[in-house]
Write a structure and sequence with these properties.
homodimer, 28% helix, globular, six-stranded mixed beta sheet, alpha/beta
Amino acid sequence: MAKKVTFQPYNITIEVEDGENLLRVALNAGVHINASCGGEGVCGKCRVILEEGQLECPETSLLTRDEWKLGYRQACQCRVVSDIVVRIPPESLLDKKTITRRRTGVSLRPSAIDVAALREEGLYDPAFQKKFLKLPPASLDDNICDLSRLEQGLNRQFGLKNLTLDFLLTRKLARTMRQQDFQVTATLDYAQRRSRNPRLVDIEAGDTADRHFALAVDIGTTTVWVQLLDLAQGEIIGQAADYNGQLSYGDDVISRIVYSQKEKGLETLQKAVASTINNVIQTLLKRHRLQVEEISHLTLAANTTMTHLFYGIDPKHIRLAPYTPTACHVPPVRARHLGLELPEHVFIYSVSSVSSYVGGDIVSGALASGIYKEPKLTLYIDIGTNGEIVIGNHEWLVCAACSAGPAFEGGGIRFGMRAAKGAIEEVSVNPQTAEPMFVTIGMVKPKGICGSGLINLLAVLMEGNILAPNGRFREDLDTPRIRECEEGREYVLAWANETASGEDLTITEVDIDNLMRAKAAMFAGYVTLLDNVGLKLQDIEQVILAGAFGNFINLENSIAIGLLPDLPRDRFHFVGNGSLMGATLLAFSRELLEEERRVADMMTNFELSETPGFMDHYIAALFLPHTQEEYFPTITERLRAG
Amino acid sequence: MAKKVTFQPYNITIEVEDGENLLRVALNAGVHINASCGGEGVCGKCRVILEEGQLECPETSLLTRDEWKLGYRQACQCRVVSDIVVRIPPESLLDKKTITRRRTGVSLRPSAIDVAALREEGLYDPAFQKKFLKLPPASLDDNICDLSRLEQGLNRQFGLKNLTLDFLLTRKLARTMRQQDFQVTATLDYAQRRSRNPRLVDIEAGDTADRHFALAVDIGTTTVWVQLLDLAQGEIIGQAADYNGQLSYGDDVISRIVYSQKEKGLETLQKAVASTINNVIQTLLKRHRLQVEEISHLTLAANTTMTHLFYGIDPKHIRLAPYTPTACHVPPVRARHLGLELPEHVFIYSVSSVSSYVGGDIVSGALASGIYKEPKLTLYIDIGTNGEIVIGNHEWLVCAACSAGPAFEGGGIRFGMRAAKGAIEEVSVNPQTAEPMFVTIGMVKPKGICGSGLINLLAVLMEGNILAPNGRFREDLDTPRIRECEEGREYVLAWANETASGEDLTITEVDIDNLMRAKAAMFAGYVTLLDNVGLKLQDIEQVILAGAFGNFINLENSIAIGLLPDLPRDRFHFVGNGSLMGATLLAFSRELLEEERRVADMMTNFELSETPGFMDHYIAALFLPHTQEEYFPTITERLRAG
């Protein structure tokens, strides 16, 4: 049940889930409390005074008995268990004007696959189907070969003709047919052929039509996700993930391509990711107590490099001009051929790529989000190492990779890190004192800052007027938090005694430059693509955010720094892991499986570095939020009001 | 240049090739000369007197100086080098009446594949085709993926669309395309798809369209034949054969099936035949200096058991009632998957079988001989371990396996052997003295009798009235050649001192029973099938003999013993190795490759043991030539005249 939390003296009330952490509640409410240990409870700065209601919190040596009685609590240690009123003590107080000017922006919730809606649209129709057959047993009067008996049965019972047959099936056919007196279940694949004649994939003894499972896989450069699908019921049974085993050979696609050129490099990378996929599948099957034999196929989405590496196709030309991938549409191949521990009859179907840097993950997301069939002009954004964007509607689609670099994944940032335990994610800075308040993942001592943390930090530093629009720290502030360093100036988020490493945790102007270049590349990408189709940002009717990154992104802060366009917030939607979602949809819908290549072919790729105007847009965007204020009306207005 | 040989006192003249062996000439002319050492020259019995002309022959210790001067020669040692007249000495003389009553019958010559005729019929159109493409090189303005570039090229240059792609191709694509500046040759497969859209099989750098080869394979229970085909020129380049490596595990299909049921038995047999095929292919490639990479596909014909074993499909049910094969039409499969040392992209296409005992070898022969498109009522006969027969025309085909057993391959015959060195093949017996005259393969001391030798022997024993029509030796002949033995009576073909083994070489009444059962099964098969379609033997307009056995068969003798029907001799044709020929035709003709399954499906199989009338026909045929004389009018007439 929701609880009401009121912060005084601001008189801000927010509804939260029962048991929510109070420091996080304050952050979400836009209420600043100094707090620089990430939530571990050791700095003792996040004091609040409980005025009404109950908080569940341990006693702590950082508060005296007297303070406790007066209602002092450490916000980071408290869980909200009733409606409460808390007061921010004077040392954390902001001007009311400062605090009310905005709330920390909305985090979007990922959308989920709605099988019921698919069914309504007639799209729930898996390309793999099981058919139960009662065949007449063989006798001296009727001793045609087993395979013909099966074919005749499929023809008589289901009108199926001219099936394509999988050779391997023949080896188990005789045994399987006789196991339950010529009652069998055939698995048919309608995916490989454009014609109406399916491929006969597998045969099982007896009636197994209600046991029919598939796998959807998303191979990310960092993480491999697998969903286990029940095709008979039309359900996602579960999902699991693991780090891509290729991480040992390089963090990003370029370093992987470099590694692939070494002796046995390609083979090593192929095996590494296959092994990861095998492990995740094993985990899922165990968890859901399924036999691997019950899997009939696997659908896959991945960026172009990951696709090449998984299939064992040399990705060399992806990073050599003119940047041609070898295959954007990889023909179906037996999973075992690629080292996956799946039944012999399981084939892999992967989503087509568009170009070297707009891969199957993006096409999959475009499928999952439905933009290819949507009349609304949509901007689809996937921010990862490269930000990829797609703009268009049901009639046309343009796309590009933005070479944003890995800054938003923490790459090239001194204390940047992945979104793991100890990463600062939510942050606020007191504009008067420049004192920070933040929460780390796991609420432990801070180790570094993850991508969403960097966006939030940049936004609050800028909005607090601590950072100038050109990305330089103000020199006139009386705070030890800003100081000179080897790389210009830096801001100290946490002091050595508050951090996991025991050294000061800072963000430097060089870090900020990297972040600004990344966000400028993205923004220049939107504008350049729109220019090329004669449209403006305001014409965008819908923005879809995808990717693991989008999972945790703070919309308002992302707009504030100029990473996302300043459009009405209700136009933004978050599709979650669009790549994985698309792969799952392909397994659920034969039509989409047939459509995917068409959608990829529909997407006109722009090489931004070769596209006129891009460089100008890029340079103009190297500012917070942008040199042209008209692109960011609400931010400009807020900054002015501030 | 042909030479004329005249035999006196019979005044029989025959034209022969220059250099022909004189004993063989006599056999072919139907002139008897006692000769029982097989042609090795050691018995000294085959004396003739040279009256005119020249004979090339060594001096021999078996003739005195005086005899030599009188013109005596050993026929088996002489080569005809001019027109000659020779006289048969009194000890070999037959009644003129006996000798003139017939010549030893015609041996049919195998027909060959006539590519020119195929072209005329529009059938020369291999399902695998090479296309040379000049693709525009990749550039920053045009950096679509390599595979799409290839597809676009095929579309633009040849109007090809919606190709099916072979996954493995993708791994070599980038390298191959850049080897000769985006000039490539694509290999396309029109066989796997019923639609007009081919499968893209392989790609090579540069223009290799004139280098395009394929293999046709016939897996016999005993022998594996391979033909090497030039698809660019439309030629059979060469052929080679070897014994099927499975021979170590059993001589016939039944013993192979039994072996396959042992632990690892199936795997052992599969590997054995794959190894044989590999060896024969190696031999051919070496001989014709071809690279294995230039092979694009392999077509295969074999009997049902051999097909199952080669594909690694358990053949168990072939010999268990109700005798169902697992697959009569085996889907195409990668050659490497079956252990063949061929390029990754090579698939195997095999001719469909009809039933457990009417296999792809027979269907292949039916294709090769064209009976499925011939208005003439045709009887197609393949005599091997099982005799298989097909009757019909372009509208219908019926077929059956006759369970003739291996007698005509020498199986179950005391001195039966394969057609190898030392096997008696041509034979005559002096009806007055019961003395034999024979030639062995290689003209060495006799070791045994091969299938064609057995037929010839049976015929001459019967026609010489040494053997009664019921298969018993006459008891009233004054000759040491016929004697009692453990198995009734036997006829001595060669005495111990004349044979390779040093023991008497005989044929027993038990041997003769076996041969009679075999020929009776065949004949009963023809008549039973014809009965079932309401036709008579005389309605047969064409008889096609196929199989290795047919290669050496003596037509007249085969009719004489009742193995073949007594029809006008000009209705008989010999197709040679019909199975191999059919496999080759499939490689040459896409239409036939598409047709083959239809032809197999067209063939209605009769299980003779289950077919009413068969047993009666069989019992009636256990007689030489047959209990019903009207079936064998010319033989009956000749015997009466004799």
